C-alpha cells in the first residue's frame, strides 16, 4: 500500500524581481501535481514577495523532501529566498470558513502618505474589528523632493471582520482625519462598490469654485446681501426654498447680458475636468443636479460633456431678471427625487449611484446614493455624509471607486 503524504504548505518567496520566477516555480510544482489553494504577489521597488498556499500530495516522505529541494535549487538559481511553513488542517479550515464574511475597503487620501497616518488608520480599524490583510497604493509614484500642493497620494486597505457599527467607524475616521491632514473613507466591499455607473454632482462650489447666484449678485450690486443668505443656507441655518426666494428678489432688474460674462469667468474645481473625462471614457453616466441655474448648468454640460442637467430656470422678461421664482425649485428633496428618477431611467440600483455635493441641500441625495461624498463641504454636511474629501481635488473620487493612476485612460 502506498503511503501518501498530504499536506498544506505556505511557500513564501522573496528577492529581486525578474522575469520567469513564477513560471519556473510553477513548472516544478506541476511535476508533483500540486494544487494551488491561494496565491498572492506584490512588487515594491523591484523587490518581489510571492506567496503560494498549496496542497502537496506525494507518495512518500522522501518525495516530499525532493519537492522542497527542487524548489530551493530553483530559488537559489534566481537569487531569491524561499521558506516553507506547514498549515494545519484546523487553521486551513478556519481560513476557508471566512469566505463570504464581511469585508471593507478603507481609502486614505492625502498630499503624501506618512507612517503616522498608516499607524493611526490601522489602529482605529483594529479597534472596530477590522483585520487588514491587503494594502495597495492607488496613486502614482512620487519623485523625491516633488511634494507640493498639487501632489496627491492614496492607499487602499482591504480588511475583513464584522463591524458592529459602520456609522461609528466612519465617525472615528472623520474625527481622526484633520489631525493627519488626510481624508479617510470606508466602504463595504461588495458587488455594488465595483459597479457604480452614475455620478450626480451638485454644481455651485462642487463642480465649480463659485456660487453662481453670488456672482450674479455682484453684477447686480447686491453681492454682500446675497452671499450672506447663501452661506446661511449652505450651513443649514435657513430653508433652501426661502433663501432662494430672498436671493432671487434681490436680483430683480439684472440685465440678461451679464449671464454670458459670468459663465465665462467660472472656474472648475481642481480635478473636475479629469474626473468627468475619465468617467465618460469608462462608460459612466454623469448628471448635474443643482439648486443653481439651468443656463450655467448647460454651459458646463457642453464644456464637460455631461449627460444630464437639472437646475432652476432663471425668469427673464424683456431682457431683465424678474426676481420671481419660475417652476419647481430644485431643492434638496428635489435633488434626491431626480437622482432616483435617473437611476430608474438608466436601469440602476441606488447602490450603483455616486452623489457629490457640498451644502446642506445636497444631504438628501448624498444619503440615498450608494456612495455619497461631501466635497470641501460645510461642517454639517461633512458630519452627515458617508464620505468626505477635503484634502484633494475632485479626481480623488476615482480612488474611491477603485481606480488607480496606473490604470490610465487613453486621451
Architecture of the largest domain, according to CATH?
3-Layer(aba) Sandwich
Number of helices: 15
Indicate the percent of residues in helices: 25-40%
The number of domains: 3
Shape: elongated
CATH class of the largest domain, named Alpha Beta
> How many beta-strand elements?
15
Radius of gyration from the alpha-carbon trace, in angstroms: 27 Å
CATH superfamily of the largest domain: HAD superfamily/HAD-like
As residue ranges, the low-confidence spans are: none
Which features would summarize this protein structure in a list?
Alpha-Beta Plaits, four-stranded antiparallel β-sheet, 411 residues, 3 domains, Rossmann fold, 15 helices, 15 strands, alpha/beta, seven-stranded mixed β-sheet
Kindly describe this structure.
By secondary structure, the chain is α/β, with parallel strands linked by helices. The protein has 3 domains: about 5-95, 2-Layer Sandwich (Alpha-Beta Plaits); about 105-190, ACT domain (Alpha-Beta Plaits, 2-Layer Sandwich), CATH 3.30.70; about 200-400, HAD superfamily/HAD-like (Rossmann fold, 3-Layer(aba) Sandwich). It contains 15 helices and 15 strands. It is elongated.
Amino acid at each position: 500500500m502506498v503511503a501518501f503524504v498530504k499536506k498544506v504548505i505556505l511557500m513564501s518567496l522573496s528577492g529581486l524581481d525578474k522575469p520567469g520566477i513564477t513560471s519556473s516555480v510553477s513548472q516544478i510544482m506541476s511535476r508533483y501535481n500540486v494544487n494551488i489553494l491561494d496565491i498572492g504577489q506584490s512588487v515594491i521597488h523591484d523587490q518581489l514577495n510571492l506567496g503560494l498556499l498549496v496542497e502537496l500530495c506525494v507518495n512518500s516522505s522522501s518525495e516530499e523532501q525532493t519537492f522542497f529541494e527542487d524548489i530551493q535549487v530553483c530559488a537559489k538559481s534566481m537569487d531569491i529566498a524561499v521558506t516553507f511553513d506547514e498549515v494545519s488542517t484546523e487553521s486551513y479550515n478556519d481560513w476557508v470558513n471566512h469566505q463570504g464574511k464581511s469585508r471593507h475597503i478603507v481609502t486614505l487620501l492625502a498630499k503624501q502618505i506618512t507612517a503616522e497616518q498608516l499607524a493611526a488608520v490601522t489602529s482605529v480599524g483594529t479597534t472596530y474589528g477590522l483585520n487588514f490583510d491587503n494594502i495597495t497604493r492607488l496613486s502614482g509614484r512620487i519623485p523625491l523632493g516633488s511634494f507640493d500642493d498639487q501632489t496627491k497620494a492614496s492607499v487602499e486597505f482591504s480588511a475583513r471582520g464584522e463591524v458592529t457599527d459602520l456609522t461609528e467607524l466612519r465617525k472615528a475616521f472623520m474625527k481622526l482625519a484633520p489631525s493627519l491632514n488626510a481624508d479617510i473613507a470606508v466602504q463595504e466591499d461588495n458587488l455594488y462598490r465595483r459597479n457604480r455607473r452614475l455620478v450626480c454632482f451638485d454644481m455651485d462650489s462642487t463642480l465649480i469654485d463659485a456660487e453662481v447666484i453670488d456672482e450674479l449678485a455682484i453684477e447686480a450690486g447686491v453681492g454682500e446681501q446675497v452671499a450672506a443668505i447663501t452661506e446661511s443656507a449652505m450651513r443649514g441655518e435657513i430653508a433652501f426654498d426661502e433663501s432662494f426666494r430672498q436671493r432671487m428678489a434681490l436680483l430683480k432688474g439684472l440685465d440678461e447680458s451679464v449671464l454670458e460674462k459670468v459663465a465665462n469667468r467660472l472656474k472648475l474645481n481642481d480635478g473636475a475636468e479629469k474626473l468627468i473625462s475619465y468617467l465618460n471614457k469608462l462608460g459612466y453616466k454623469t448628471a448635474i443636479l443643482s439648486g443653481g441655474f439651468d443656463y450655467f448648468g448647460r454651459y458646463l454640460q457642453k464644456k464637460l460633456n455631461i449627460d444630464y442637467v437639472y437646475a432652476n430656470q432663471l425668469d427673464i422678461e424683456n431682457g431683465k431678471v424678474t426676481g420671481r421664482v419660475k417652476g419647481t425649485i430644485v431643492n434638496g428633496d428635489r435633488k434626491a427625487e431626480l437622482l432616483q428618477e435617473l437611476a430608474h431611467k438608466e436601469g440602476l440600483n441606488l447602490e450603483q449611484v455616486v452623489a457629490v455635493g457640498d451644502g446642506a441641500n445636497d444631504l438628501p441625495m448624498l444619503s440615498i446614493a450608494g456612495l455619497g461624498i461631501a466635497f470641501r463641504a460645510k461642517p454639517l454636511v461633512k458630519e452627515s455624509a458617508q464620505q468626505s474629501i477635503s484634502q484633494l481635488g475632485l479626481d480623488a473620487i476615482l480612488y474611491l471607486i477603485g481606480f488607480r493612476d496606473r490604470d490610465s485612460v487613453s486621451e
